[in-house]
Amino acid sequence: MKYVDEFRDPELISKAAEEIRRLADPGRHYRIMEVCGGHTHAIYRFGLKDILPANIDLIHGPGCPVCVLPMGRIDDGLSVARDPSVIFTAFGDMMRVPGAHGSPLEHKARGTDVRIVYSPADALQLARKNPGRHVMFFAIGFETTAPSTALTLIRARSEGLTNFSVFCNHVTIVPAIRAILDSPDMRLDAFIGPGHVSTVIGCRPYEWIARSEGKPVVTSGFEPLDLLQSIVMLLRQLRAGEARVENQYKRVVPWEGNRAALKAMAEVFELRPYFEWRGLGFISQSALKLRDQYAEWDAERRFPIPGARITDPKAAQCGEVLKGVLKPAQCKLFGNECTPEHPIGALMVSTEGSCAAHYQYEHRKNLVSVA
Amino acid sequence: MCLAIPGKIVEIDPAQAHLGTVEVAGVRRKVDLGLIQEESPAAGDWVLIHVGFAMTKISERDALEQMRLLSMLGEAEQAMEEVRGYSLLDPAPPH
């Protein structure tokens, strides 16, 4: 329990850990997926694996939007910025992520007008201030960021501001869970549902996982105690042979989600028939695009887009790691060819990717203990 | 981007009710309140912020917990960089 001294309620943590040991059937192996990249980071940072019995495996899911974005999308987005009148804007997380022809930051070094924004609203503000330029916002993220992009587009449209567009890469989490559940080598028992995504979508969208797939889901907060309590709730259901959606993070997640955010998303976006996820391949109805009434603000319709497709090297086993078939360190490339400094596969790209988190917190630790 | 940043609304823009000045660990920036209008945001409320937009109202206790969590995850500095980066200082007048 390496960080136990920092825990706010060490006594409650010990109690939760004890309860987990009591509930876990020693004759059974449990595979519980945390869907959200923020949870993955917290699990590694707090060393929760060391608290859990050996027969409970936490499988790190696809909830890192930077990781699952196909490289070709970065090249496509940057191709628009070859036009010198265009200002390419994106969140800082995107700046070092490589496309086939370099990252946004490398394009900037070569003279492309690439700027970091911290909010889509700031990209829109840049467009207001630069009426002679076109500002394109490279939008990325799950339902935590998609409503903000939507509301920004609603504002742009109501102001008639047409020197602004969005290159939309927003994805939705539920179809990715479905794709993982549908794969033949899937071995999951239960899910820790996302925390902040659920503040937007609520808990209802997970109900089919319990009802049709028979897998319990608990939406969880990010503190060590939150995560352990969520595991207790999942184990109680598994032990009783039940499958329900429960909300451990009630203090922040309303069961129905954020209606205003869902309304803004519905006004602006519709589902793409399919979209490619790095590591998982094409998943139907898993991503958002702009509706026809927003075509004028859709960078993919305003500009010619090459439609670049770059496949990851076959040796990278991101898909197997995402499905829980392999652990990060079991991938042939992990730690040798594929490192956070030189990511080859999707999950090494951002600190919220499971391989990068494993490398940062476990791999380095092992290297130090060997030395 | 994925972990929310907690802040306290200190003022609602009288001219544009969807904008509020929010304070995060001593730093004040304009934040868009458009997605929590149904929760009737007011000065003194605590909110969770994603990419410049308040996403939900929370209690003061949960706000302090969230800030502590960001510190424990080593993400507090990155969060403050994001907040300082919000540049909605002089929005265009509404049409």
Strand content of chain B: 25-35%
Rg of chain A, Cα atoms, Å:
21 Å
Low-pLDDT regions of chain B? 90-95
Which CATH architecture of the largest domain in chain A would you pick?
3-Layer(aba) Sandwich
Task: Please summarize the sheet with the most strands of chain B.
Answer: 5 strands, antiparallel
Average pLDDT figure of chain A: 92
* CATH class assignment of chain B: Mainly Beta
- How many helices of chain B? 2
User: Given the structure, what is the number of helices of chain A?
Assistant: 16
Total E-strand runs of chain B: 5
How many individual domains of chain A?
2
What gyration radius of chain B follows from the Cα positions, in whole Å? 13 Å
What oligomeric state do these chains adopt?
A: heterodimer
Structure description:
The complex is a heterodimer of chains A (371) and B (95). Chain A has helices at 10-23, 37-45, 48-51, 65-68, 71-80, 104-109, 120-129, 146-159, 173-182, 196-201, 207-211, 224-240, 259-268, 299-302, 318-322, 354-370, and strands spanning 30-36, 56-63, 86-90, 114-116, 134-139, 164-168, 190-193, 217-219, 245-247, 269-271, 274-277, 281-284, 288-290. With 371 residues, chain A is α/β, with parallel strands linked by helices. Chain A has two domains: 1-313, HypD, alpha/beta domain 2 (Rossmann fold, 3-Layer(aba) Sandwich); 318-365, no CATH class. A five-stranded parallel beta sheet of chain A has the order 2-1-7-8-9. Chain A has a four-stranded parallel beta sheet with strand order 4-3-5-6, sandwiched between helices. In chain A, strands 10-13 form a two-stranded antiparallel sheet. In chain A, helix 2 (37-45) packs parallel to helix 16 and helix 8 packs across helix 13. The longest helix of chain A has 17 residues, at 224-240. Chain A is globular and about 65 Å long. The model of chain A has no long low-confidence stretch (mean pLDDT 92). With 95 residues, chain B is of the alpha+beta class. Chain B has one domain (5-85): SH3 type barrels (Roll), CATH 2.30.30. Chain B is 24% helix and 33% strand. Chain B has two helices and five strands. Chain B has a five-stranded antiparallel beta sheet. In chain B, strand 2 and strand 3 form a beta hairpin. Chain A binds chain B through residues 3, 6, 8, 36-38, 41-42, 45-46, 63-65, 91-93, 116-122, 125, 128, 140-142, 144-145, 147-148, 151, 158-160, 196, 199-200, 222-223, 251-252, 254, 258-261, 264, 352, and chain B through 1-4, 32, 34-38, 48, 50-53, 55-56, 58-59, 62, 65, 68-69, 72-74, 81-83, 85-88, 91-92, 95.
